[in-house]
Amino acid sequence: MEKLSRKLLDSGFQFPQNLNIGTKEKLEEKVIQFGEGNFLRGFADYMINKLNAAGLFNGSVVVVQPIAQGLAPMLNEQDGLYTLFRRGIENGETVYEPSIITCISRALNPYDDFQGYLQLAHQEGMRFIISNTTEAGITYDPSCKFEDAPPSSFPAKLTVLLYERFKAFSGNKDKGFVILSCELIDNNGAELQKCVNSYIDQWNLGEDFKAWVNDSNCFASTLVDRIVTGYPRDEADKLKEELGYEDKLMDTCEVFGFWAIEAPAKYAEEIPFHKVGLNVVWTDDSTPYKLRKVRILNGTHTMTVLAAFLAGKDTVGECVADPLINQYMRKGLFEEAIPMLTLPKEDLDNFANAVFERFSNPYIKHYCLSISLNSNSKFRARNLPTILDYYKKNGKVPEVLSFAFAALMAFDHGTEIRDNALIGHRGSEEYKIVDDMPILEMYKELWSAYDGTLEGAKKLVSTVFSKTDMWGLDLNTIDGLCDKVAGYLYAIETKGVTEVMKELVK
């Protein structure tokens, strides 16, 4: 079977009719991308590919492998090409969109070719830097030296590249970069900029360079939202037959995609995602979009999966397909979470409806137990702020999220700690409760002392609520919350989660 390459693109090979093929032209290199993994290839590169196909960017991407071992050799073997399958549900319709992404010109490993890496700074047309080096990528490591070839940390590598750029163009203010950080940490661009400044100071690179870095470059913090499921291992042989060629770098992702970029809107004209209908927002404050994602998408996950698992569901798709759980999710989302957010209601409703389509995606199996990891800290970040906002606004606690809090404690009902997990039971089936060990030990102790009464449930909930290190405050100070959660917890323990959920959504 033929292998995917630029030679194959130009050979007259009969590609499937439903396959989108990006522009075959050789385009000027305008983007340096730190990270060659599935996410950026299914997100940013897809967007750039779409711009190029419309003739609106006419730029290619040089991928820099941020660690010593990676996919650069494999990318180069395929001339930067790979097939992306964008699949899911959008506006009620099933979408199945395979595309050959052609925007990557080459991949470079700075551990093998450090001078080639530095040479990127000398290319006048380079304008954008995109990064996704994992949550741990944006860290300041003082052991990195300027003389290292290359330094190990991503911010140190970037500092060296920026210094090379500064020297190559004699500090020209027009030769800075627009840097789009996609790492999953808050204020990723600002944190990256802090790290770079720390290296400038540590390495004594001078005030002129420091001023150029901070005044002539834009370190944009961004929020990214797309599930990229990566290489379709279980389907690879089937998809290879469908395509008619071999591709070792196939990538898969959902249909939905959103990118909020904290940067001046003028840059949108340089890389005009909006002109091809991509869901990209340039803003001076991405906080409302972060809250939207955390409280609607992530919050609905955490609000739902623990109760749903106890009710016998194993995947998010099963939750959405179940009429009772679907009604429960919608009640909590549209009546409790969304009214606490500040974006326009139409925007929030559209996002929420898209979330339900994403949860229904037949191509993604998202397991409840996978989402259940570290549920207490997730509940604090995703759902507790909504409870507090709701109480402040309405003078009472919300019903669905109080039930969800009780479901969290019912899910954490374990009998023994084994293999660093608390062991719970769903009927005759064991399941692992994975969280910080002090939390697991607390729940084990509390449930072993539970006497099966409503007063016993209140004592358990009150004790959990008193842990200010878990919640940031003593939740017993929220009038009515302990009684409400304890009532639901007692009902779950005596009637079962499904019966309580039925009463809740009447």
Structure description:
Strands 6-3-2-7-8-9-11-12 form an 8-stranded mixed β-sheet, with helices on both faces. The chain has 506 residues and is of the alpha/beta class. Helix 10 packs across helix 15, helix 10 crosses helix 17 and helix 21 packs across helix 22. The model has no long low-confidence stretch (mean pLDDT 97). It contains 22 helices and 15 strands. It folds into 2 domains: 252 residues, Rossmann fold (3-Layer(aba) Sandwich); 217 residues, N-(1-d-carboxylethyl)-l-norvaline Dehydrogenase, domain 2. The radius of gyration is 25 Å and the shape is globular.
What structural keywords apply?
alpha/beta; eight-stranded mixed beta sheet; 506 residues; N-(1-d-carboxylethyl)-l-norvaline Dehydrogenase, domain 2; 2 domains; Rossmann fold
Outline the secondary-structure elements.
Blueprint: H1 6-9, E1 20-21, E2 28-34, H2 38-42, H3 44-53, E3 59-64, H4 72-77, E4 82-90, E5 93-101, E6 104-108, H5 114-119, E7 128-131, H6 154-168, E8 178-181, H7 188-202, H8 207-216, E9 218-225, H9 236-243, E10 251-253, E11 258-262, E12 280-283, H10 287-310, H11 316-321, H12 323-337, H13 345-359, H14 368-371, H15 375-382, H16 384-394, H17 399-411, E13 414-418, E14 421-426, E15 429-433, H18 437-449, H19 454-465, H20 468-471, H21 481-495, H22 497-504
Parallel strand pairs: 1-5, 2-3, 2-7, 3-6, 4-10, 7-8, 8-9, 11-12
Antiparallel strand pairs: 4-5, 9-11, 13-14, 14-15
Helix pairs in contact: 6-7, 10-12, 10-15, 10-17, 17-21, 18-19, 19-21, 21-22
